[in-house]
């Protein structure tokens, strides 16, 4: 097993982004000034992904294996359900090499999934990350929380960028735990409007419910419209995030039904 206990980055490291969706493109763009190159793997990616990467001025390489072998740091920012598979592709590509990239899993996954990803790489090579906020193109909107032995190294990469990077400590999984708890209010709680709407319509009390909510000062159409619009755009991605959050709650001995119900509502959306 490769020893990364004294692992460090060159002055201008090569950074790989898997994959440049809206958030990945913003992360890659933010790091251009600090990196020798910011690369992405274009094999099998959509035209929309290619366009985002082009606009962010990222350098395409043929595939994940090439990216993993060239990069000093790999940042995974993908749908939560794909996080373990993407990590496996990178680990397979660099197996047996003298140099292993620092692997930053910035996905909305449970601490258990972070541990599974960590088991794919040499000791300490994985940094647990959690992005809270929108894709950051200007400072002050978004925080990248980091945890792991080399979290401070990744934090330093983001100094002066639109992403405010903060280190929680040396224990991988804590950043993802924070994200899971945050997701209870940002995604699980709003999903109750979807459940409320569906139940009221099926039970035939939609009209009276709207009247009662209006009477008590609740703008039901606005609340429902906001979450329905977000669910239509991103619900496919939030299903896995809510399931990962539920796993985190269950592991802590906390009832996990909130997140599992939210996952089902986003699945229906």
Automatic annotation (TrEMBL):
<dbReference type="InterPro" id="IPR015814">
    <property type="entry name" value="Pgluconate_DH_NAD-bd_C"/>
</dbReference>
<feature type="domain" description="Phosphogluconate dehydrogenase NAD-binding putative C-terminal">
    <location>
        <begin position="200"/>
        <end position="268"/>
    </location>
</feature>
<dbReference type="Pfam" id="PF09130">
    <property type="entry name" value="DUF1932"/>
</dbReference>
<protein>
    <submittedName>
        <fullName>6-phosphogluconate dehydrogenase</fullName>
    </submittedName>
</protein>
<dbReference type="InterPro" id="IPR008927">
    <property type="entry name" value="6-PGluconate_DH-like_C_sf"/>
</dbReference>
<dbReference type="InterPro" id="IPR013328">
    <property type="entry name" value="6PGD_dom2"/>
</dbReference>
<dbReference type="InterPro" id="IPR036291">
    <property type="entry name" value="NAD(P)-bd_dom_sf"/>
</dbReference>
